[in-house]
Amino acid sequence: MVRLVGLVVTLGACGFHIPGGSSAQDAGGDGSVLTDGDVADMAIDEMPPPIDGDRSDWWNPQWTHRRRLTLDTSTFTGPVTDFPVLVRLPALAGVSASGADLRFVSIDGTTTYAYDLDSFSALGSSAIWVKMTIPQASVDTELWVYYGNPAAQAATSGAMVFSPTHVSVHHLGSFVDATGNGHLASNGSVSSVPSTNLAGRIGAARTFDGTDDYLALANGDGPYDFTVTMSASAWVKVAGFEDEYQAIVTKGDSSWRLARANTTNGVAFGWNDSNNLLGTTSVTGTEWRHVAIVQTQTTKNVYVDGQLDETIANSDLLDNNSYSVRFGMNEESTSGGARYWHGDIDEVRISATSRDAAWISAEHRTTAPAFTTVGVDETY
Predict the structure, then answer these.
(1) Selected residue with higher pLDDT from 71 and 14
(2) Which residues contact 184 (CB under 8 A, 6 or more apart)?
(3) Cβ(183)–Cβ(158) under 8 Å?
(4) Count of domains for the chain
(5) For a Cys-Cys bond, which of 21, 166, 240, 276 suits 46, CB 3.0-4.6 Å?
(6) 32 with 152, same domain?
(7) CB 355 within 8 A of CB 362
(8) 176 and 323 in one domain?
(9) How do beta strands 168-170 and 230-238 pair?
């Protein structure tokens, strides 16, 4: 079997050709400079597939282009079920302007995966959450992305990807709740809405000024009145730690909260008026850090960058209150001000489920640079 690199081979009798792959773009379609998690650090495989004329495994001929994607799930620490993996794509020649014709299909062509567009640019880089089960964590995972069907209707659906195991998910390029549960993030004062940072960990993030910026979730406090189990996670970048227990994601002082660990450089899990599990790993610096809190039926846990930071055997139920969930601010705080966050926040996820260590590790690993290797453009 012969491989040809960088050539266009036309097989007239078969009605298709295999062009050389496209190169990575230097900037996103929104004009932003690509960051460490963007397509600039993506592995682009420019080796054409074997030229054997066979398209018997083509999922659907109405989609005229496809690329093989290889996900570095060998770095996961265990299996995960119905997990949103992050797929990053470069510019795709032939894709529709809105990305409506994108389809993610199993490598054997039998299964289509639900997906949610975090950000999309036909001419730049895109970040897309694809719902998959990874049964074995010691090997890479392959799938296809199909495109090139101008008549295709959009199939992106955050609800299909994140519900029902998440209560709310916020990519923060916009304020919508990706789960479809309607927990819109908002702020009644224009001056205190966190500004957009195009160089987020995944797509766009939000920058909180540490003075009055925050976001509050709609639809009341009820959906977040967890008692036995829960999880909350976010990507953060610290600009300054000025106040104790600065808020990342909180439901007040008398319920659960993910915040700064008192006056240290770590993060903490608080669950009532007086109890906090203080993490010890520093999250300061110029890099994005993944932070998470998890309550199981028997333990409370703090994670940093996918690793267990602190844990305690504790079966106390979470206290509930009537305060709203807020990003970057603690609505109930009665001392030290409102504990405004000073820095950036991206990809906030809240769930009534206690995520295991493999899940939290995978949340961290899936956004890593070069997690996605993109194969060459094959045409039908």
Answers:
(1) 71
(2) 175, 176, 177, 217, 218, 219
(3) no
(4) 2
(5) 21
(6) yes
(7) no
(8) yes
(9) unpaired
Placement of tokens 């001000």 in the chain: 337
Binning the chain into helix, strand and coil, the percentages to the nearest 5 are: 5, 35, 60
**CA angle (206, 211, 212) in 5-degree steps:** 70
Are 327 and 345 spatial neighbours (Cβ–Cβ below 8 Å)? yes
Q: Give the other-Cβ count within 10 Å of 97's Cβ.
A: 12
**Alpha carbons 284 and 276: distance in angstroms, whole number:** 20
> For residue range 118-156, what is the model confidence (pLDDT) as tens digits?
999 999 999 999 999 999 999 999 999 999 999 999 999
Residue that has been written with the tokens 């592995």 in this structure: 43
Which range of residues forms the domain containing residue 38? 9-161+370-379
Closest CA to 223 of 82, 324, 354: 324
Residue 302 lies in a domain: yes
Q: Which residues contact 174 (CB under 8 A, 6 or more apart)?
A: none
Instruction: Quote the CA–CA distance of 146 and 178 in Å, as a whole number.
Output: 23
- pTM (2 d.p.): 0.87
193: domain CATH number is 2.60.120.200
Query: Checking DSSP bridges between strand 372-374 and strand 65-71, what pairing results, if any?
Result: antiparallel
Give strand pairing partners of 102: none
Distance between CA 22 and CA 125 in Å, rounded? 12
Count of beta carbons in the 10 Å neighbourhood of residue 142: 15
